[in-house]
Design a protein that fits this description.
This protein is mainly alpha-helical and about 280 residues long. The protein contains 11 helices and 4 strands. About 15% of the residues are buried.
Length: about 280
């Protein structure tokens, strides 16, 4: 938020860029003011500018050079992997959805204590181009289109599932009955899975063209949704387990785990599907 404010954006523009309501943004700014022990936006920006150090400092080679969050159907970076995520407030309550890239990772700038940047786990521009060559530019484009089409189904329902998850955990924390929230989650999860299955059936020709097994994708969706139903906080990791991953062709692993070229023991790799390496 402060980075966008330093760039000169108004509160309304920042809220639009982050995909959150104006009142949510104002509340988040208040939390930032208290955290920085300042009383207004001008003082917060002064602290932020100071913490960033000299503006002429060299930037890391693996820094993502594109403005974020990404616009709908972003295509400027050939290695971009579309990923719609739910944004939350300080209480972990969902406040909206934004597009990001599966490759992004927050990393601290060397020799600093509080300066961070959005790193591409693939590396610099040359490594990003090499990754695209390995995966295939057509495949990346087609899978991004599938993700955007699927987002109309998954986005609103995933946000509602997260809201119910918060209700479930609040009930447990307050020693109340979590059953109503849990039942609502289970009913939503059943509808969610039916719609995902229908979507995959409709897009099966594209799945087959990209070597994405229908049954494996359906089981993966069940796994991810099922994790949200577990009475745990925070929810378990979204990492794809190896026993699910090996059901996909080895070259698809580069798409699911772009930072790992050898994600599972070699003994688990089908002999007819050698791994692509770089």
């Amino acid at each position: 938020m402060l980075e966008l404010a330093v760039a000169g954006l108004s509160d309304e523009e920042i809220a639009a860029r982050l995909g959150v309501p104006d009142e949510t943004l104002r509340g988040e700014f208040e939390l930032v003011f208290r955290s920085l022990q300042v009383s207004n936006r001008r003082e917060a920006l002064a602290v932020w500018r100071t913490s960033r150090g000299p503006v002429h400092a060299p930037r890391p080679a693996d820094e993502c050079p594109y403005p974020k969050p990404f616009p709908d159907h972003f295509a400027d970076c050939p290695a971009y992997q579309a990923r719609e995520v739910i944004t939350t407030n300080m209480a972990h309550e969902p406040v909206g959805r934004i597009w990001t890239c599966r490759h992004l990772e927050a990393r601290r700038i060397a020799e600093t204590r509080n300066r961070w940047y959005a790193a591409c786990i693939l590396g610099n521009a040359e490594r990003r181009r090499r990754w695209v060559r390995d995966v295939g530019s057509v495949r990346v484009r087609q899978l991004n289109e599938l993700i955007h089409d699927l987002a109309s189904i998954t986005g609103p329902r995933a946000q509602r599932l997260w809201e119910l998850k918060c209700e479930q955990m609040r009930a447990l924390e307050q020693k109340q009955d979590p059953t109503p929230a849990t039942r609502s989650m289970e009913e939503l999860a059943a509808r969610f899975m039916s719609q995902i299955e229908a979507f995959l059936v409709d897009k099966r020709h594209l799945l087959d063209a990209n070597d994405l097994p229908f049954d494996a994708l359906l089981d993966l969706a069940r796994l991810m949704i099922g994790r949200m139903l577990e009475p745990r906080w925070p929810p378990p990791t979204w990492e794809i387990p190896n026993d699910v991953l090996v059901r996909f062709p080895a070259d698809v692993w580069l798409f699911f785990r772009p930072g790992e070229y050898w994600p599972v023991p070699s003994a688990a790799v089908p002999a007819s599907r050698p791994l692509k390496t770089t």
